[in-house]
Write a structure and sequence with these properties.
It is a single chain. The chain is an alpha+beta fold. The chain is built from 6 helices and 10 strands. It has helices spanning 2-9, 18-26, 73-87, 108-113, 146-167, 172-177; strands spanning 28-29, 34-35, 42-47, 59-65, 116-122, 126-128, 179-183, 205-218, 221-222, 233-236. A hairpin with a 4-residue loop joins strand 1 (28-29) and strand 2. Helix 1 (2-9) runs antiparallel to helix 2 (18-26) and helix 2 (18-26) packs across helix 3 (73-87).
Length: 244
């Protein structure tokens, strides 16, 4: 699917602003291959889940979630609509599926993902690929105990996750005051430990997360690195899967 989207993004005749289309659809600025510094399209496998807990968690659909900063919302919406038209009717990769615009009135999974909540749980683990180092010694040469190093590591990971929230254009006041809990263990029923979701070739740290904001935010919420692979998808508290 990604290969087809990249192909459509490169067909300059489709776009009034070919550079913006390439940036929003591929995640790379211009034609030089550098990662974009603004939100962009995420390709997200959707696990099947529901409130009674009878869904099996298998992926049957893939969502294309388009993001953009508020200042370019209008041209971004036009670009995503053009992409939808270009994909409509395609046999997409090996999925052999058809593109369908989502209507929350009939789609029970999507209606939960776009809900509002203060508390959000990862249904697929967050990937954090950006590196950092936890020192083994203090500046005066004192060894740092393992518990303190673990606390420092969690603080670094939370800081990187906050950077991801800012990148998704969430208000900085909410990002700064959000409470973040990270764990390798599953937080929702019918999900498994974070490492079990590792795709082939993925080298990022994977972790489940619980995020509590000071006020409700509107979904969908998808955070971290490798978002286009479907990692870092969150569901609001009270919908779909029960916490464990």
């Amino acid at each position: 699917m990604r290969e087809r989207i990249v192909q459509i993004a490169g067909e300059a005749d489709h776009w009034d602003d070919a550079n913006l289309a390439n940036e929003l659809l591929t995640g790379h600025a211009g034609r030089d291959g550098k990662p974009t510094q603004q939100p962009h399209l995420a390709i997200v496998p959707l696990p099947s889940f529901n409130a009674p807990g009878t869904a099996d968690g298998r992926v049957r659909r893939v969502a294309l979630i388009g993001y953009a900063k508020s200042g370019i919302a209008v041209p971004a919406a036009e670009i995503y609509e053009t992409l939808a038209a270009g994909l409509d009717g395609d046999s997409v990769s090996k999925l052999k599926g058809r593109l369908r615009r989502c209507d929350a009135s009939w789609d029970k999974v999507w209606s939960q993902l776009i809900g509002m909540s203060r508390v959000w749980y990862s249904i697929t683990p967050v990937a954090i690929a950006r590196g950092f180092k936890v020192p083994r010694f203090t500046p005066d040469g004192r060894p740092i105990e393992s518990n303190e190093r673990h606390i420092r590591k969690l603080a670094e990971l939370c800081a990187l996750l906050r950077d991801s929230m800012k990148h998704m254009d969430l208000p900085e006041t909410l990002v700064r005051s959000a409470s973040i809990e990270l764990t390798p263990s599953p937080l929702l029923s019918r999900t498994v430990r974070a490492e079990r979701y590792r795709p082939p070739g993925e080298k990022a740290l994977l972790t489940h997360a619980r995020i509590e904001f000071p006020e409700p935010i509107q979904g969908p919420l998808i955070l971290g690195d490798s978002r286009y692979k479907g990692l870092g998808l969150f569901v609001p508290s009270g919908s779909g899967l029960a916490s464990v």
